[in-house]
């Protein structure tokens, strides 16, 4: 068993969003994405995987396959396979998202 403090993975960078990996075991990776206001994660798919996102703090816009959704604290998002995902911090504070990337068996 391993316990880690999420706040230790909530660092930010003035130049771009940060991705801080917490666990990487087998077919699963857990990380926290952190965005300062105005920062964004470009559109991209996750072939052969399910992505689960939990908004820890802040708010913004999550776009899946060109469909925009406002997101805020305690929202949970699921994106699968070849769906194209992007995230933008449209708020005035840090946006932190806990992510589980679960790859499917080949």
Automatic annotation (TrEMBL):
PANTHER family assigned to the protein according to its UniProt record, in alphabetical order: CUPIN TYPE-2 DOMAIN-CONTAINING PROTEIN, OXALATE-BINDING PROTEIN
Swiss-Prot/TrEMBL keywords = Metal-binding
Show where the Cupin type-2 domain sits: 33-100
**Superkingdom of origin organism:** Bacteria
Q: What is this protein called?
A: Mannose-6-phosphate isomerase-like protein (Cupin superfamily)
Q: Which InterPro entries match?
A: Cupin_2, GPI/OXD, RmlC-like_jellyroll, RmlC_Cupin_sf
Kindly indicate whether the keyword Protease belongs to this entry: no
């Amino acid at each position: 068993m391993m316990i880690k403090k999420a706040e230790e993975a909530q660092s930010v960078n003035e130049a771009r969003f940060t991705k801080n990996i917490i666990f990487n075991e087998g077919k699963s990776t857990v990380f926290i994405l952190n965005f300062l206001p105005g920062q964004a994660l470009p559109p991209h798919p996750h072939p052969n995987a399910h992505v689960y996102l939990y908004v820890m703090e802040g708010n913004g816009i999550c776009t899946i396959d060109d469909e925009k959704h406002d997101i805020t604290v305690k929202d949970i998002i699921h994106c699968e396979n070849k769906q194209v995902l992007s995230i933008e911090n449209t708020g005035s504070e840090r946006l932190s998202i806990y992510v589980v990337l679960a790859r499917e068996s080949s």
